[in-house]
Amino acid sequence: MRLFLIAFQFLTIIPLPFTIRCEKDDLGRSTAFFPLVGLTIGGLLVAANWLLSPWLARPLCDALLITLVTLITGALHLDGLADVCDGLAARGSRERFLAIMKDSQVGAIGAVGLVLVLLLKWQALVAVPAEVKWQALLLFPALTRFGQVLTMTGARRARQDGLGATFAHGAGGTALFLAFVTVASASFYLLGLKGVLALAAVCVLTFAGRTFFQRKLGGLTGDTIGCISELNEILVLVVISATLHAMY
């Protein structure tokens, strides 16, 4: 339970009414519970959808749900995506890329990246058929947080400091296995083979993104992990929508 709460504190900005003891190695070990935190976030989205959908048009309701998940996570991974977009736009050396990502300011390309990602995420959610919307809302945060665990486990670190390095250092095979069992079970239970296909798509994109950044930067940072996570959120919703529309 303590490791779950550590993961919950890191992945959301929802305050807890008590203090959780956290050792350095606990951060990496808590990654085993990332998908469970994702399911918790998904449960909040399902509840919000239940409250809002009877009163609002589908596009507006879905826009508010995307806003809610952004608020719950404190836009943590969106910040990483913007920094990566700015770094890629600079087209410089590894050192320049890392320096740009460490800069707290968001450049023009980063802003464009944020707008496009939020727009794509919103439209991907709108495209999910209504009959499986609650399953998609529950599942996509869990799948993307499993992607974070998969990204970090065994990866090289571009920096030796920062939270990304700390989590990557502590994440191991046991945490990855537990995270996989959780998310694979949830995927199959909620959407059957379509959920398994979405999980497979997350694995492919995660490995591709991880390989790219390790070649580009010599390792991963918290920003690159966040960037891959945001792309996975879009991918999961697109795959769920595409597989279901293909059935009709």
Features:
248 residues, mainly alpha
Descriptive notes:
The chain contains twelve helices and no strands. It is mainly α and 248 residues long. The protein has one domain. The chain is globular and about 50 Å long. The model has no long low-confidence stretch (mean pLDDT 84).
Mean pLDDT: 84
H-E string: HHHHHHHHHHHH
Overall structural class, as computed from helix and strand content, comes to mainly alpha
How many structural domains in the coordinates?
1
Rg calc: 17 Å
Taken as a percent bin, the fraction of beta residues is: under 5%
Could you give the distance between the termini?
Answer: 43 Å
**Poorly predicted parts:** none
- Please bin the fraction of helical residues: over 70%
How many helical stretches?
Answer: 12
> Total number of β-strand segments?
0
Briefly characterize the structure.
With 248 residues, the chain is mainly α.
